[in-house]
Each structure stands twice: as C-alpha cells, then as structure tokens.
Records
---
Amino acid sequence: MQSRNFSTKGLVINTKPKGESNRLVTIFTPEDGIFSATLYGGPKSRLRSQVSPMNSGTMYLYKDEAKKSVKISDFDVKNYHASFRESLFKSFASSLASEILMKTHCAGNSEQSWILMNGFLDGMDFFGEEEARIGLVRFLWRYIALLGIQPDTVNCCQCGLPFKSGLRNISIGKNADDTLSYRNAFDFRANGFVCGDCMKNQQKSGSKMEIGGESIEYLGNLSNMAPKEARRLKIDDAVLGETKNLCLSIIENAIGSRLMTLESSSGIL
C-alpha cells in the first residue's frame, strides 16, 4: 500500500504524551469517525499549540499504510472554542459529548454525529453557561435519536394511551383534572415512558425513573421542532434536571457502563 497526504475537516478530541516530546492525538472527522494520529514536536512547536482539545478546522495528515500510522502535518484552525477554557461546565460538557461519541462509535453515522457535535460545541461557545446547559439536553436527546433508541413521548409503552397534552389529561379513561405535573416514569427495560395510571399498579423498581409530564412534553417538542424553534423553548430548573438525568441514564443503559466524565466532573454537569 502507498503512503499519502490528505486533508479533512477535523476536531481534536484529546491529546496525551507519546514518548519524550510527541503527542498522541484523538481526532474526529465526518468521513472516518474517531481515530488516533501522532503529532511530532516539542512544547514550543507552533503546531502543538494549535492541536488542542476542541479546536476544529482543516487538518492535514500523512497516512502510512504499511506502518498503519497517521501523522499530523498541519492544522488550519477555524474555531478555537475559547470560552471552554473559561468555563468548567463547558469544558466538562464537551468532554462528556466526546466520551459518548467514542463509546458509541459515533452511533454508526460519523457524518450526522459530526453535524450534531459541532453544532453543540459552536452553540455552547456562542451562548452563556445557562443556555449551554439546555443545549446539552438538546444534544443528548438528539444523539439518542441517532442511536436509534429515542423513546415515544406520545403514548404509554404499557397501556398504549396517550400522555397529557397542554394542561389537561385528555387520554381516554383518565382523570381530566390531572395536570402535566402528574408523575410518570421511564422504564429502562422497555425503553419507554409509563403513565401514572400504569405506575399505580406496579411496584417501584430500579429499572424505572420517575419523571414529570412537563419533561416528557419538552422532549417530545425537541423531537418535532427544528433546532431554531427548539432553542426558543423555555424550561425551568426542575425540567432541565430531569431531562438531563434521564438522557444520560438512557445513554449509559445503552452503553452498559458509567460515563467516566460524570465521575470526574464532581457535580459540575
């Protein structure tokens, strides 16, 4: 096989030492997903300062097919995501998204994962931390859809009846005085939402997580709205916390292991 030079859109996921002066760089591209490449040069190297986590742009690579190795030749950075260095939340959120991409192999769709990931990172960089926290939920829910495991937010996965809409429960056979604050649940074994009526007839178990109707409605809106419309939705802290924890739990359940970034972030996320 022949060695070759090529360029690609690239996002630096992380870097770590390799030998005395080189670095092993994890790169995400829309064509080839996530892979490693070697960056040669000491601490004073111009290229080394550019190849930093969450920087994105056009990356120039040299691939040696015989040695099964890739070397970074140059990097034209288009976005430094400078605000991540000033916000612990943004830094950990970007690391969390990267870990999810790596552990799920970009959901088997590098191109769509690239669009989602870069939209998330650019949005966090543009907005303040409060909006970035809501942006994390949007990213997680959409990535769950890309994984093919996004649950139905319209009907109970057990009785098949629809959840509440607006401020009244309009489901057949259910109490019309119940509001969206009525507690429902998510069943991880069934990968679906369970209505409050079905919950009453069941024992509590570790496979279920309680969640309010407002949270289910918000996630349903995210599924049906264009990104620009979804960004206009306002949610309170309770819904933000519930939907974030649910999305993370769904992803961890699919992966089959704990996300290590959550362990190291010490409640910042």
Note: Confidence is low (pLDDT under 50) at residues 166-181.
---
Amino acid sequence: MAATTLHYTRPSWDEYFLELADLVASRSTCLRRHVGAVLVRKERIIATGYNGAPRGLGHCLDLGCIREQMGIPSGHRYELCRGVHAEQNAIINAAYYGVSTQDTVLYCTNQPCIICARILINAGVVRVVHRGDFDDELALQFLQEAGIELIEITRSGS
C-alpha cells in the first residue's frame, strides 16, 4: 500500500516565530494590549516575554490599569505603567538565565516603542520582525540608524 502524502504549506521561520509570539502574548496581564516577544538565535528560541507587571507585583488584571485611570493615551508617558514591555521581558529573561542576546532576532506581535528600541540596540539584536500595530517613528528611526533589519509581517487577512 502506497503512503499517503499530505500537502500543506510549511510556515517560514519568520511566520513560525511570529505565531509563537502570538501564543506568548496570550499570557499578558495588560488590560489595553497583549504583546508577545520571542528572542531567537540560529532558529532556536533563547527567551520569551510578554507585557505584564514585574515579578511579585500585582497585575493590572487584578488592580486595574494605572494608565486608564490617569487618562494616558497609548504611545505616551511609558514610564507611568505597571507593566514591563514584552521585548524588555524577553531581554530580561535571557539575562536572568545567563543567555547572551548578541546577534539575535526579536519576533514581536507589535512594533517596538522607542524605549524597547534602545534596549534592543544595546542588547545586540540584529533583526526585528514584527506585526506593526504601533506608531512610533522615532523607534523605527533609531533601529534603522543602528543597522537593525526591520521586517513587518501583518497577520493573514490584515
């Protein structure tokens, strides 16, 4: 009996890791935006991160959103937030476990903000693949100036 061959399209590495970033984002405790990040070296995951409160602190899910209570719009006054960004948490998690972030690729469900862009530059990230959905031109400018390759891949059907 002949073996049946199933035909399907395998996702590219970029699509694969962005899908994993979507799954990581499902752990977010932010009430406004669920973001996930996957840090990769040579097609191997070295760390993940999602946006949420620092270890041991109460989550926005339980305490409410400081930014909402203060009427702060998205993209402004990042420091007035309980949450740590997904990209930051991916870098922090790598550091926490002693894993170098030099020459890595960051996959993220959203375009990084300026604060995350500066961290990614100094962490040695060489490529950022994201889904867009955030408007921070200064972040894009800094990443480009640093020579970091930027790729935007929107969700299917977007």
Note: The radius of gyration is 17 Å.
---
Amino acid sequence: MRVQVSKLDNGLTVVSEEMPHLESAALGVWVKAGARHERREQHGVAHLLEHMAFKGTTGRSAARIAEEIENVGGEVNAATSVETTAYYARVLKEDVPLAVDILHDILAHSTFDAEELRREQHVILQEIGAANDTPDDLVFDLFQDAAYAGQPIGRPILGTPETVSGFKADDLRDYLATHYRGSNMVLSAAGAIDHEELVRQASELFSDFAGNAPAAPQRAFYSGGETIVQREFQEAQLLLGFEGRAYHARDFYASQLLATVLGGGMSSRLFQEVREKRGLCYSIYAFHWGFADTGMFGFHAATGEEDLDKLMPVLIDELKRAGESISDAEVDRARAQIRSSLMMSMESPASRAGQIARQILLFGRPIPNEELTERLEAISTERLRDLANRTFHQCNPTLAAVGPLSGIMRQEAVAERLGYSAATAAE
C-alpha cells in the first residue's frame, strides 16, 4: 500500500491509499475549521453547518441525498470537532464517483432552506439537552471550559440554546465562505481507489473552493481551573487534567505513551490500582489530546459518591509515583499497544482515510507508520519519568466533576497534594 498526494491549483489536497484487496472505499472531505474557529457570536455554527449540509442543495433534496447514497448500499455522515469538520462516505468501488459528487454538492450548493434550518435548530436544541442530561458528556464540556476559560477552544462544540436558535442562513454562508477554502481542505480516500481518477474528478468539481485559508484562530492559553456541579445522578463523573502537548511539540508522542502507561488498558497502573486492587470505580482511564498550539492530559473516572473521597487520593498518589517508578516493562507494553493500534488502523479504510487527512492538515504530509514507530522507540523510560514530573507537578490542575460530589477533593487540595507551586511553575 502506498499513499499518493496531489495538490490542485486552488490549494486543495487530494490524498489516497489504495488497498487492492478491498471492494469498497472510504472517502471524505476534511476541513481545517471547527468549533475553535468560531467568533463568540458564531458559537455552534460549525456544528449547525455540518447538519445543514445534508438538508438539500440546488440539485438534490434532503431525501434525494439519502436515497442516492443508500440506493447503492453506501452511507454518508459528518462530524465536527474542536479543530476540524469532516464529511465522509463509504461505498463500493464503482460508486466512488457518486460519493465524490454528493460530497461536493452538499458543500458547494447547499441552499440552507429556512424551514429546514428551523427544524435542524430544534434537533440540535434536543441534542444539547441530551448532552446536559448525560453526565459523561457534560463533564467533558465542563472540563474543557475550566481548562481554557473564556476562550473559543474551551466552548462546547454544540453551542448554546441561545446562539443556535439565533442563526440565520447567512450566518452559515459566512462561516462556510470564510473557512471552506481549497488550501484549508483535504479530499482523502482509502480502499478501492484509483488516485488519478480521484484527482481528475476533484479538479472538475472542487475548483470553486478557491482562495487562501483564513488567519489562525485565537491562540489557546491553558489556565487550569475547577468546575463542580452537584447533580442527582447515580455516579460521580470526575475529570482531572493538566496541560498537555501540541501536535508539533517535542513531547507529543511521549505524552501519548505516558497516557497509555498510566491508564491505557486493563494492565495500566490506574486500572490495576484503582479498580482491580481497591474496587473504587467501574471505569478509569487516561488520555492525551493534542491541538495545534496546546494539549490536554487527563484522567477520567466514574464512581459512587461513597468512594469518591478514597478514589482521588489514590489517583493523585499514583501520579506522584509515576515520576519515580515507571518501569521499562511498562513502557514496552505501552509501546506495543500503540504500535498494534497503528497497524490495526491500516486494515480499516475509514480509519486510514481519516488518519492521513488529519496528518495532511496538521503536518502537511502523510506520516508513515514506520516513522511513528521509530519515534515511539526513541522514547526512553527516563524521559517518561521526567515528563510525568513536569506535567503533574508543575502545572495548575484542572478539575471537573458532575453528580453526587459530597466527598470530592477540591482543586486547591489536589494541587497541594501534588506539590504544585504557582511560583515554581512560573519559573
């Protein structure tokens, strides 16, 4: 398998990886524009635009869009994240031209009909309500907002009832015209794909996405903070976090590896200590999110109110120990987990199409798995210990929790137990 990359005259990148053994293909358009690219008054418009793209074009009704793709057994969907929006399809190889045509049509010719807009605004208001009633969704929104208070990167992707209800069709057109430019977009495909034919069709259809990419969004500044919401849920949902590393930072891959060591599976430190040995929760894991200019290193746990006062000290003490006692065996196991995940993703055309699209948007080129593996192999146990000390002891923590929380340790106490000093961090 070989990744091929072409760039159109308008700056749009076409990238594909042929998988000769497959009879189907996954493809989509990834746009370097998401929730953090919105102005304050635009909060939620990126997600609303993603919904409205399927609600009718000048040549296809909403029903016809769904029927055409499903008549050939395909599927089409979309997703909005903090920094990107993706529109993607899965079809048999002979139906790739149809999928490309539909993807172009919904991006270039959507009508944003007023009645459809009102209907979809109502749907999203229901989605916001559902998220607020789902504790493990709500706590992540509270967490992001606490870490980046008052900044676009900290706002919920869905928007608020007030902002979503107020949008007009011209608001969608304005956001689309500003951010959906060729140099800000990638058409990516994997599976049963003919790259030259894909480039030919893209050249014919996507030439109308001209112009330079807009300015970079407001730079993010991690601050840390606390948001505690008492709710009558069955479980307490807890997130403890620290500043992570941006995609281009030296310690980005080391942070991914450290998260796997601490909470990346059933053999990880936190799962073994907190769940298996002590039975203090049903679920606990670690994660590291990278963004263009910042990152988040976090830990999520769900537990009963009666165990909350015991869980947090154990979690914090494990973080304190990490800088001294991470072993070579743990690092080797974490490396194997990440490496196997990379190799397994090679077998899924949908995973590969998304992976190479994001690599183009973030790094300007596809990154071979061999290169990623070499980077992981170069990370020593000593470096991970040092990273743990710098991440957990020299960074103001972020604490978000929702549910029955009478026994929760507050952020100030967490920082004190970790030995965090604002003066030390400033140095």
Note: The chain is about 45% helix and 20% strand.
